[in-house]
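Dear Dr. V.,

Thank you for agreeing to look over these. As mentioned in my earlier message, I'm a first-year student in the group and I'm still getting used to reading structure tokens, so any feedback on how I've presented them would be very welcome. I ran two proteins. I've put each sequence directly above its structure. The first is here:
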Amino acid sequence: MAPKPSATVRYTAMRLGIFAASFFAIWGLVYAGVLPRGLGGSNLLWVLVLAIVVSAPLSFVLLRKQRDEMSEQIVDRVDRAKTKLAESRTMEDGVQL
């Protein structure tokens, strides 16, 4: 059985997937003429900006569970680091020359 990927990697991959889906959907709508093409040669920039604007709220709503899992994982890592730092500090205080 393959190891479970970290929550951060999973969240980032899903967020990029939502962005890519938004980009291609908006690109298709611009190509079909449903959305305006932008000014001059700015078509790609226009599609990128629209994809960011559309994918951000979608990610916020659709990836709530993954974001909470990622937050829990980060909090656990920070707590472990704080514990190790405190243990290290007490060991150093106990040593006398």
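The second protein is here, in the same arrangement:
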Amino acid sequence: MNEQSPHTPSRRKVLRTTAAAAGTGLGIGALGSVTAEAAAAAPAEAPATAAAAPRRKGATMAGVPFAGRSTVRVGLIGLGNRGASMIGLYLALPWVRVVAVCDPVREKAERAAAKVVAAGQPAPAVYTHGEDDYENLCARSDVDFVHVATPWDSHFPIARAAMLAGKHVGVECPVAMRLDELWELVDLSEQTRRHCMQLENCCYGRNEMRVLRMAHAGKFGRLLHGAGAYNHDLRALMFSPTYYEGPWRRRWHTQLRGDLYPNHGFGPVANYMDVNRGDRAVSISSFGTPALGLAEYREEHMPPGDPSWKESYIGSDRTISLVQTAKGRVIRLEHDVSTPHPYSRINSLGGTRGVFEDYPERIYLEPDHKDDRWGDFAAYAGEFDHWLWKEHANPPGGHGGMDYIMVYRLMQCMQLGLPPDFDVYDAATWTAPVPLSHASIKANGAPQEIPDFTRGEWRKARSGVDSVKPA
């Protein structure tokens, strides 16, 4: 569920970034891609035309391995809900050292440092001097990898600073909020030869990895469609005075109408379909409901005079997007954090031989099943569970163990000098629905072109999360 660690919303950088986002349409127009007005005038059946990919300034990072090292040295930036929960996973790996931690809230940084010392490692350097102290962490010569778990508006500048300082960087979802920022991260990764990765833990869920291996083994036949979502009732948390350090997450609902958090749903399905590894996401059409849920919750639960009463919510309570791929497949994405409902990421995949649907998990494949009766997905565990889940049957950490599996695998790739399971092109693709769904909803659902961040490399098959166990 990847709740990001909080910082105070009154910081000048938050205000500057959100004001810029509101004034520029999140960079969509700045890149030369369609404005909402132009898209609305375009024929409904024709994708709105995005700007041509900017000229590549460095070689591709697709398939580029890390430089192997015996010890991986990590710096963590953002130590609230999400960042603090990840420290123990790094400390559980004997070849990883946490050498630096950073958060403007000193108490959070000091608690994180105490965890490192309690684990038997040397005390890490602590950076708490204002909103830009992360730059000093990134400048250290003894950091190999930077983990970013801060509010969304700061993801891009921190990832940028890390790569410019020669560090590989992993960013919690979403990696950036603007289309021009996504392109800049792609360019910087290629120029600096440093990986910039979306830390998408749901790609490492046990069910997701089993479905991935079954898809690659042909159990679903030729793939046709998939679906993913982030449907999670966050109303109480977004209005809580203590869960987030300020209302930064809720305030995005005053800025954007589209899918604010597509990565958990998009990432796994993109992996099933080998997006950026033989197929490509080419367009997205999005539709949104009225924005009613947060205002109703506020009316029922927040006292008169609460600062939230100054907010006007425009974010659709539920967004539904359809992504078309180059091979003609369709991916449905949903986002809803503003209405009451059980948690679901949908996580569905269908092909010419059957379908899997999650929440609850169920499967129907020919010739294994018949009479229109769902089969037992657990029956496929022995043959198709990923080697990471066979090796770590009861992983520690949150979200059912997927957080640990993600950290373990990434740190393993860095130690052994392997390519990462996903890269900056995946990060940009999985995040592109944030600005593009907003533009499509404003344009009454007109399709928006998803850029080819790989600049043609998507046509080449290569490995990803469905990895082979290292010797």
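From my reading of the second output: The longest helix spans residues 402-416. The chain is about 30% helix and 15% strand. Does that match how you would interpret it?

Kind regards,
E.
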